[in-house]
Specification:
binds NADP nicotinamide-adenine-dinucleotide phosphate
Length: 341
């Protein structure tokens, strides 16, 4: 366990805006976590800091989750892998691919830790972590006792879970168990970018290779697309998508479509439709916008960026201006996906 005082958290988050905590405690085991929670029951939890935007002064202690470890249980058709919360997400997915374990390859190259993945039920290219999630173990803040929560109990939804609502700030996740497939695998390549990337590179394949894409083909394609399209947080501070994609009623969508015939849409069911927030922001004129400190990424309008020395408030101010203009133009309120501290 490591305890540091008056720490600037900028290097611990991908937005890299400054924010001082009176106390940063790095824990490497459940015992250290319980001990720290007993002393600082209101401390906030930090994983890889890739979904957090800090304001200038964080008035509370922060516990950084750094516990590592992997356990594997194999059966004929699948493997159950239990990962400690501080394991790096992308390294973990990469390790699954090296072992030919399938299911989460579409979630390659997402920054952050395993322990944070269930919080917003991370997803990309039509796959969410919930499709392989079995259970998690957590320490309850009140009782300081371990509990197990199963997939059905997590209330996983689109970029959402019970940990953002009823159980918000009531527990700290210490490990997660995923069930991965053994070959033969089925792969998901329905997203246009992914399908195009895979077909653009399939002619490069060795002719002796099967034409059916492998989980490694998907993993590699996702990495190539993301490297091209998204800003690397090591070069430009950001936290991925700043806003959630709004899901609106069919009635509201029909009205929108009558005004903007080219609006992209993805029906969720008979009653609701997902509209890409990036399109709404782009059509409101913000794509590529830059002020002195903050901006909107030129290749992906959903990503707000720190242009060098932004404060958290610069990013929040920009996000409020974007929300207002999208609301004025389309009558849709964008909600932040990023956790603002
Ligand atoms: P943090 O940012 O450290 O924390 C996020 C929240 O979870 C905070 O509220 C924190 O208190 C809480 N938390 C963290 N760990 C624990 C724990 N062990 N127990 C309890 N609470 C905890 N997300 C997607 O869904 N899909 C994507 O494709 C995607 N792409 C991204 C691309 C980029 C370039 C970036 C920067 C971000 C992207 N994200 C994406 C967002 C982010 O990577 C995920 O939300 C990730 O799961 C956050 O993990 P973290 O460890 O960094 O969490
Ligand atoms: P994209 O492929 O250009 O698609 C734009 C939007 O349309 C996405 O938000 C996506 O919704 C939706 N979409 C596209 N094809 C779809 C389909 N076949 N069915 C349903 N919805 C569809 O998106 P992108 O920005 O390049 O990102 C690619 C993937 O990585 C997306 O899944 C995105 O969510 C994920 N990603 C997430 C973050 C984050 O921080 N949360 C950051 C970067 C990328 P969904 O977002 O619902 O998939």
């Amino acid at each position: 366990m490591k305890t540091e005082r008056e720490v600037d958290l900028a290097p611990y988050t991908t937005f890299r805006v400054h924010g001082f905590t009176p106390l940063l405690i790095t824990v490497e085991s459940e015992e250290e976590l319980i001990h720290t929670l007993r002393e600082y029951p209101n401390a906030r939890i930090l994983g890889g800091g890739s979904n957090i935007l800090m304001t200038d002064h964080v008035e509370f202690p922060v516990i950084r989750i750094a516990m590592k470890g992997r356990e594997v249980e194999t059966s004929d058709n699948h493997v159950d892998v239990t990962l400690k919360a501080g394991e790096n997400w992308h390294e973990t997915v990469s390790w699954f691919i090296d072992n030919d374990w399938g299911g989460l390859e579409n979630l390659a190259y997402i920054p952050g830790t395993v322990g944070a993945a269930p919080i917003q039920n991370i997803g990309a290219y039509g796959v969410e972590q919930k499709s392989c999630f079995v259970r998690l173990r957590a320490i309850e803040r009140d009782s300081l006792q371990p509990i197990t929560i199963t997939n059905e109990q997590c209330g996983f939804e689109y970029r959402n879970s019970i940990f953002k609502h009823e159980l918000s700030n009531t527990l700290v996740i210490t490990s997660v168990t995923y069930r991965l497939s053994k070959p033969p695998h089925s792969v998901h390549t329905s997203y246009k970018d992914l399908a195009e990337e895979m077909s653009a590179t399939s002619h490069l394949d060795d002719t002796t290779k099967s034409s059916v894409p492998t989980i490694r083909d998907v993993f590699d394609a996702v990495i190539r697309i993301r490297r091209r399209k998204l800003p690397d947080p090591r070069e430009i501070g950001n936290a991925g998508s700043f806003f959630k994609n709004p899901v609106i009623s069919m009635e509201q969508f029909r009205q929108l479509q009558s005004d903007y015939a080219d609006v992209p849409s993805y029906p969720q069911n008979n009653e609701t439709v997902k509209v890409p927030a990036a399109w709404l922001i782009d059509r409101s004129g913000w794509k590529g916008f830059k002020d002195a400190h903050a901006g909107v990424h030129e290749k992906q309008a959903l990503v707000l960026v720190n242009l060098g020395d932004a404060h958290g408030s610069d990013i929040v101010n920009l996000s409020n201006k974007i929300r207002k203009s999208v609301s004025d133009k389309f009558g849709i309120t964008l909600e932040p996906e990023v956790n603002i501290w």
